[in-house]
Amino acid sequence: MSQFEFVLVVVAIVAGFSISTTLAGWGRHLLSTPEERPSSLQYFASLVLLFQTIRYVWVLWDFRAMDWLFSSFFLALLPMLVIALSAHVISIPGDRAQAPLELYFSRARLFFTLQALVLATWTAFDLSHLSLIRETVSERFLPGFFAIRATGIVAFLWLAYSRRTSHHWIVLSAVFGTLSYFSLTMLTALPS
Fold first, then answer.
1. What is the pTM of this model?
2. Is 41 a domain residue?
3. N vs C: which end of the chain shows fewer Cβ within 10 Å?
4. d(C-alpha 186, C-alpha 136), whole Å
5. Structural domain of residue 149, as residue ranges?
6. How far apart are CA 186 and CA 192, in angstroms?
């Protein structure tokens, strides 16, 4: 087993925990009565997180040729660990004593703080392997690439303290759109 295969297996195991937590929440949603249904914001946040989980595992493939050290392994694993923790925080619970929107906002502060941490750790991993990033992202787009990450960190921290539903919808939609755009434009080719 190569070093990259080991890293990918460990990251995939943690990604599996994140995906299963998200899907379990959706299953609880499907089994709930209309009075118990969670906020659509909570459902959308978990959808964005699911997409982020899958995309992270896909993007990791770009780092298959590098020489892996423990520090690289740790920096690659850290964002996925935080994503898995975020999945647990935003997962739709089976027993709800709060109103749906109140339940969402009771979890939003920790969830979005963790999402800012995901972007920060993901960016730290990318910056520590800048030569490999330059093979994927054009040199002229590199400042914009990291500016989008910085904007995402600020937006997530802002959402952590915002209780306006419209702000949450707008930012989550922008994040999902940005992830979708980068997935379609930069990552559509199958890994070789």
1. 0.79
2. yes
3. C
4. 8
5. 3-186
6. 14
The domain total for the chain is 1
Q: What is the pLDDT of residue 184?
A: 63
Q: What is the mean pLDDT of each run of 10 residues along the chain (192 residues)?
A: 91 96 89 77 90 89 86 90 92 76 88 92 88 78 85 92 91 85 56 47
Is 192 part of any domain? no
What pLDDT, on a 0 to 100 scale, did the predictor assign at position 23?
94
Give CA–CA dist 83/106, Å, rounded: 18
Q: Exposure of 44 by Cβ count < 10 A (0-12 exposed, 13-18 middle, 19+ buried)?
A: middle
According to the model, what pLDDT value does residue 190 have?
A: 43
Terminal-residue alpha carbon distance, the chain: 18
Residue 174, domain member (yes or no)? yes
191 in any annotated domain: no
Residue 138 has what pLDDT?
75
